[in-house]
Amino acid sequence: MARGKRLWGFDDEARAFLIEATAGIPSLLAVVTRAERRANVGMWIVQVSMEELDEMYSFGEALMDATRSRRRLELLEGMLASLGTSMDGF
């Protein structure tokens, strides 16, 4: 793994949501679409910089502030938790 890079993973549901949500933000869409499906862990995994993680985290927080959907809030909470774990390097 390149210096300063982290791995971030998300499931199929989160990927579908993120592709739609980031459609108008090319830099974040690029993060989501370059992820590779890893069948052995059942997730999409992408190598990201700390800056990309921070951008995605801020985006997730903004989405949480803008939604009232319980299911979407649960999805975003999980996404923010996984982003935080990736930022911490675990």
Provide a concise account of the structure shown.
It contains 4 helices and 3 strands. It has helices spanning 12-21, 26-33, 50-66, 70-88, and strands at residues 5-10, 36-38, 43-49.
How does this model look, in words?
The protein is of the alpha+beta class. The protein has one domain. The protein is 60% helix and 18% strand. The protein has helices at 12-21, 26-33, 50-66, 70-88, and strands at residues 5-10, 36-38, 43-49. It has a three-stranded antiparallel sheet with strand order 1-3-2. The two termini are 14 Å apart. The model has no long low-confidence stretch (mean pLDDT 93).
Instruction: Give the count of helical stretches.
Output: 4
What structural class results from the helix and strand content?
alpha+beta
Low-confidence parts lasting 5 or more residues at pLDDT below 50?
A: none
Question: Residue share in helices?
Answer: 55-70%
Task: Please supply descriptive tags for the structure shown above.
single chain; 90 residues; alpha+beta; 3-stranded antiparallel β-sheet; 4 helices; 3 strands; globular
Fold topology:
Elements: E1 5-10, H1 12-21, H2 26-33, E2 36-38, E3 43-49, H3 50-66, H4 70-88
Antiparallel strand pairs: 1-3, 2-3
